[in-house]
Amino acid sequence: MPNPSRRSETSRQAILNTALDLVADIGYPKVAIEMIASTAGVGKQTIYRWWPSKGALLFDAFLTLAGTPDGELAALPDTGDLAADLKLVLNATVEDLDNPRYRQTMRALHTEIVHDPALAADYHKRLDGPMREVKKDRLRAAQQAGQISKDADLDVAVDLIFGPILNRWLQQTGPLTPEYVDTLVDTVLCGLQPREAAAPAV
Amino acid sequence: MPNPSRRSETSRQAILNTALDLVADIGYPKVAIEMIASTAGVGKQTIYRWWPSKGALLFDAFLTLAGTPDGELAALPDTGDLAADLKLVLNATVEDLDNPRYRQTMRALHTEIVHDPALAADYHKRLDGPMREVKKDRLRAAQQAGQISKDADLDVAVDLIFGPILNRWLQQTGPLTPEYVDTLVDTVLCGLQPREAAAPAV
Questions:
Q1: Do residues B161 and B76 lie in contact, with contact meaning Cβ atoms separated by under 8 Å?
Q2: For the segment B108-152, what is each residue's pLDDT rounded down to a tens digit?
Q3: How far apart are alpha carbons A161 and A151 in whole angstroms?
Q4: Rounded to whole angstroms, how far apart are CA atoms A59 and A19?
Q5: What is the ipTM of this complex?
Q6: Please, what are the domains in chain B?
Q7: Chain A partners of B187 at a C-beta cutoff of 8 Å?
Q8: pTM of the entire structure?
Q9: Taking Cα atoms as reference points, which of B180, B163, B114 lies closest to residue A29?
């Protein structure tokens, strides 16, 4: 006898994969729910039963792609060398953004969030908030190791370290090179150093 | 005898104002070219003759609103106190973003840019590029005054100082308070200081 919950999970995955394919192929604005339904071989009502909007479906598809279903975020690397660890993470992000499937979905997700407060709230609850905690955990470890000032505002630090890559990519203001990542991380960490450690290098 | 070029300028302004009103009232995604034309009392063809897309029209409307027609950008304030000058500018930006007419247009412009490479190119040529030069001019003056390291990468500095406000606002990741602006500017400037000036404050 077929297992209805397994069949349901199979349909769900088919819908998410179809959505990712269509977004990569023709761009998010041109993808319609009807199109996803007919390509995935499910009824339109099935999609509407599971997702309140095209944006909500996109977000779940993105989570599949990013390999981060709810509550399963990996910690940031901690080799003891904060600058090296952050550069590694940011260069990996730049590489992800070069992947067409990831790129189109990421662009679409970030523009949907701007216009859809419900999606923005869900995004922050399920992805951005937990991600921010993971990033702050790494910075807190550096703080305990005396590499970052005790007074540093870690939320501002996260914005400074992780924001510019996304900004530059979304707004297409310049190329994302390893040199850019290096200068970015070095400049920000310089400003976050404990004052004693920032003694003259001359 | 009526002056055709003046009549044409009047129509142009009416179209831009109507677009701003409609975007503020019902949101950019729901505004159609037909709607702008009929509300402004012009033919749809007039709009298509002057603008290649809804995004291009939006950008011109935004420039009207921002009071910065091409090539007329004011320099950033320079009182000699770089931190105070930057905080003044960023707090003024935060205030602009609170204005509903400005806010809706700004959101729409920034999401259109992500999906429309032609608009992105025009935006960078006519607004973001010149603005970036104005910002770098102020930082260069600080560099000459010995307040910023000679080695600092001014493009990275601009991204760090001016990016996080926009990011936080677009992605709705947190409130934009004067305290946030203060911490942001102080942290970034700390990282940009000449190494000699970053001596122990203890």
A1: no
A2: 998 888 888 899 999 999 999 999 999 999 999 999 999 999 989
A3: 17
A4: 10
A5: 0.82
A6: 4-50 (1.10.10.60), 82-198 (1.10.357.10)
A7: 152-153, 156-157, 160, 188, 191-192
A8: 0.85
A9: B114
